[in-house]
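Lab notebook: predicted structure, single chain.

Context: the supervisor wants predicted structures on file for every construct in the current expression panel, including those that have not yet been purified. This is the next one on the list. No modifications to the sequence; it matches the entry in the shared construct table.
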Amino acid sequence: MRVSPLLSSFLHANSPYQLLHFGFPKLTALALPSILRFTRHKQVTGGIQVLIPTNTVHSRPNVLSVRLLHTIATSILTGLLVVLSIDTCIGASKSDSQGVPNIVVILADDMGYGDVQALNPKSQIATPHLNALAAEGMTFTDAHTPSAVCTPTRYGLLTGRYCWRSRLKRGVLNGYSDPLIERDRPTVASVLSSQGYTTGIVGKWHLGLGWSRKSSGKSIDFAAPVQHGPNDLGFDESLVIPASLDFPPYVYIRNGKVTDQNTVIQNKQPFPKFLREGPRANDLVMEEVLDHLTEQAGNFIRREAKTDAPFFLYVPLTAPHKPVLPHPRFRGKSKLGPYGDFIMQVDWTAGQIIKAVDDAGVRDNTLLIFTSDNGSFMHRLDQLDAKDHVSDQTIQAYRADHHTSNHLFRGTKADIWEAGHHVPFFVRWPQRVKPGTTSAATVCLTDVFATAAQVAETKIPAGAARDSHGFLDALDGRPFRRAEPVIHHSSGGMFAIREGKWKLVLGNGSGGRQAPRGKPFTRPYGLFDLHDDIGETRNVIAEAAAVAKELEQTFEPIHKGG
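Prediction complete. Output recorded below exactly as produced.
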């Protein structure tokens, strides 16, 4: 059963000891003010439950069973019937609601800016669903990830804090890594949950998990609960894989439990089917993972759309990251090799999730974001006679006349160059965002946290989301400029700072995969005017030394703070 949001808000706002002394009249009189102050909505079973308030928004409420408090149950049963009847009379259906919006965030894995036709008209890879999303909402043309690789971006999106402030200073975690997000750190999910949102995640976690080890200490006990995962960090429901789909263990984890403990050894594979050797559960079939996640995300949306509470759904996809294994129904569709086919499947997947929102009747009041965790790993070859992914699918590169996954940008995934972190970013919210609009505001995925708090009409907890700046003004068509410049970060720990048209690279290379890789904080630094030179081909630090000095001085307190 589901507790009425009106009753739940009343119970959450008043302690059991207060309720014990309230008779029917006072209970009824206090219910409506409590409703106006705060709405709480959670799934409960086994009868009535009393929620005891906590002091921190990111903590789960303690539960006091009424079996131990018969007197409390007696006092509130009559009031329960009254509040339920009030809820029925005054509660509008969610599809008609003008309250706080649902929030859906779809995060592609390694999808480049140039992989979407709406951003790269020369692309021959069909992306009709993302093209439609761009037409129906707002396109941010200067959106960036907080890192040029997976794990740090996910940390930044969920916590509103740059990952280099955590213990992870470079690189990524693997499927066996310990949890990265601190237990007491607020996340966007925990803050929204505190405001009555039902929160869910379906997809790739890649932020470490508290695995239980067998007595030998060398292997994981898949029968034991998984600790310190999404459900401990603000998510009511979760279905995740531990890390990228090329990292073992290859298992699904639903609400802290591995769904199939029977495993086989997955052999390693070369690109494009790149896989590392390790245990794989029988219920995880590589080519079917995207379809399974799509189905589960749709189920969550359809179920929660029928309730009175708003919902937050985070869908971190597993593609087009390696292994590049498009489902058989997409193979050969793009005529540009497996990667092109995989992009088409990612577009279809996003379309199905968007359709689930629309079909559930919550389209108008759902804030939907589609973006990527970093740029594409596909290199660009400028030699017109070079062999590429089209002629040989084992080659991790496209000739520029065939496809440019990272558009006009320099570099690739992992680099401090624009290709590493300049990503697609579309926002649809029919009730508020005008269709077919564009914003040139510089935003970062860390800003999703503060924006979610803005639209949920709540405040960010003190000390949380240090690097998050809400961009609601941009969504409303008003001028928006972050209170602080965006800080870019490469897989190898290279930093850059972006202010207006200027980008200062605080090192002497890519800090990632493209040569020269260079070293962080080693001169000569690179200064680029991105308005005139989006490809970062001309280092103008000699001509604009004063600009470089000012940017370096601006960077220091941001880097050292928080």
